[in-house]
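Record 1 of the preview.
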Amino acid sequence: VQLQASGGGLVQTGDSLKLSCVVSGRTAGDDAIAWFRQAPGKEREFVAAIRWTSNSPYYGDPGKGRFTISRDNAKSTVYLQMNSLRPEDTAVYYCASGFPSRLQHISDYDYWGRGTLVTVSS
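->
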C-alpha cells in the first residue's frame, strides 16, 4: 500500500486549502483512510477519517466544523478540505491507511504517506 499526500502550502489566516491523498494497493472494504497532523514539538493528532465503503466520516476536535473529508473511489483519492484556517493549524499533514477498530486510533493505521506541510500565517 502506498499513499501520496499533496496540496499543502503557505496560506493566510482565514484561507482554505484542499489536501489530496492518492492511495494505491488497498482501496476497498473496511479499509479506512485518515488524516493526522503533527505540529513542531507536538504529538501527532487525529484530524479526520473515512472508510472506502462508508458515507460516515469521523472528525477529531481540530477540524470539526471547518474541515471536510471526502473520497473519490474511482480515483482512489481521499481529500481534506480545510476552511477558515488558523495559525494553530500549521503542521505536517499525513494520510494513513488501516483497518481501525475506531477511526481515531492512530495505532490501527499501518501505512503512512510522507506528509504535506501546511503553514498558516497570521
